[in-house]
Amino acid sequence: MPISEFDVVTLSKSAIRVMHRDEHHVYEFALIDDGCGRRVVSRGPAIVFGRPSKVAAWGLIADAECAARSAAREFGFTD
Q1: Under a CB-based contact definition with an 8 Å cutoff, are residues 66 and 8 in contact?
Q2: Radius of gyration of the chain (CA)
Q3: Which of 29, 36, 41, 60 lies at 20 to 30 Å from 79 by C-alpha?
Q4: C-alpha span between 8 and 19 (Å, rounded)
Q5: How far apart (Å, rounded) are the C-alpha atoms in residues 18 and 47?
Q6: Average pLDDT over residues 3-11
Q7: CB atoms < 10 A from the CB of 69, how many?
Q8: DSSP per residue over 14-51, as a string?
Q9: String of b and e for 34-60 (b: at least 16 CB within 10 Å)?
Q10: Which helix (H) or strand (E) holds 62?
Q11: pLDDT tops 80 at residue 1
């Protein structure tokens, strides 16, 4: 599933939330220091489940993480 199917709904210095456009699942990732002085998107998001659908929220985690990483990098919140 392409990352273009996600919208950024919140972006701050500490977190990013992305939502799947059709399924409405929201994935929140923390923006953390990786121990080497770089800001990165954490693994293992908090999930707010959207409407019942054929696509399980768990199946979209990897794509949501990729979308969050791309957006955070694009807006200068991560290295």
Answers
A1: no
A2: 12
A3: 60
A4: 6
A5: 10
A6: 92
A7: 17
A8: SEEEEEETTT--EEEEEEEE-SSS-EEEPSS-EEE--S
A9: eeeeeebbbeebeeeeeeeeeeebeeb
A10: helix 61-74
A11: no
- 3-class secondary structure, 7: strand
State which amino acid sits at residue 75. F
Distance, CA of 37 to chain centre: 21
Give the predicted TM-score (pTM) of the model. 0.90
| pLDDT for position 26 | 97
How far is CA 31 from each of CA 21, 53, 60, rounded to the nearest angstrom? Answer: 22, 29, 19
* Ramachandran sector of residue 8 (left: φ over 0; alpha: ψ -120 to 50; beta: rest): beta
Residue with tokens 């392409």: 2
